[in-house]
Amino acid sequence: MRIITLSIATLLHFQHLFAFECSVKNIQGRYAMALSGTGIAQDPPGIIPFVGPVAGIGIANLKNDASLELVEHLNGAGQIIENIKLKGTFSVTKNCEGEASAINTFNNKEHKYKFVVSAKGQKIILIMTHPTSPILSAELTKIDTL
Questions:
Q1: What is the CATH number of the domain that holds 42?
Q2: Do 100 and 63 touch, CB atoms closer than 8 A?
Q3: Is residue 126 within 8 Å of residue 26, measured between CB atoms?
Q4: Which residues of 60-95 are buried (b: 16+ CB within 10 A; e: fewer)?
Q5: Under DSSP, is residue 101 helix (H, G, I), strand (E, B) or coil?
Q6: Residue 106 CB neighbours (<10 A)
Q7: For the segment 101-137, what is each residue's pLDDT rounded down to a tens digit?
Q8: How many domains, in total, are found in the chain?
Q9: Domain encompassing residue 140
Q10: How many Å apart are CA 55 and CA 61, to the nearest integer?
Q11: Is residue 13 part of a domain?
Q12: Could you tell me if 127 and 109 are in contact, meaning their C-beta atoms sit under 8 angstroms apart?
């Protein structure tokens, strides 16, 4: 009985040693992004200048210095906008919750996001949270490490 107890204790100890802890370093990398949502009417026009369904794809680079770069391609209610570039910063807590802020080059508007990290840093799920933003969510899947 003592051997079994010792073995379980050893396994629990090793599980803790190999547990994933979120940090900027652990989630840095290049991610493929798929987003969807709804553009909403805003006066003056907001981040995305159309009303209706929105879909998009892109590449996100999360860097070891907590900076980020995104390139997005959007289809909003039939209006195509390509190569929207965003630059900004992000932070993440040990429990895998994070925030990001970026400025886009399409109309110099600020984007704000909340996100969670899953699959040991291989996936990020986010929503836009800026008060004048469209209703958007996205899923990012890690391609590789920078």
A1: 2.40.160.90
A2: no
A3: no
A4: bbbeeebebebbbebebeeeebeebebebebebeee
A5: strand
A6: 16
A7: 999 887 788 889 999 999 999 999 999 998 777 889 9
A8: 1
A9: 21-144
A10: 20
A11: no
A12: no
**Farthest CA pair distance, the chain:** 72
Q: Is there a contact between 67 and 89 (Cβ–Cβ < 8 Å)? A: yes
User: What token pair was written down for 5?
Assistant: 């107890």
Contacts for 111 with CB less than 8 Å, ≥ 6 apart = 47, 86, 88, 100, 101, 102, 103, 104, 128, 130, 133
How would residue 40 be classed by pLDDT, with cut points 50, 70 and 90? confident
Question: Could you identify the residue written with the tokens 């195509």?
Answer: 80
Exposure b/e, 19-58, CB count within 10 A at least 16 = b: eeebbbebbbbbbebebebebeeeeeebbbbbeeebebeb
Q: Which residues are CB-contacts of 5 (< 8 A; sequence separation ≥ 6)?
A: none
Beta pairing partners, 114: 99, 127
Single pTM value for the model = 0.83
What's 61's DSSP letter? E
Residue 67 · residue 82 · CB < 8 Å: no
- How many whole angstroms separate alpha carbon 145 and alpha carbon 26? 9
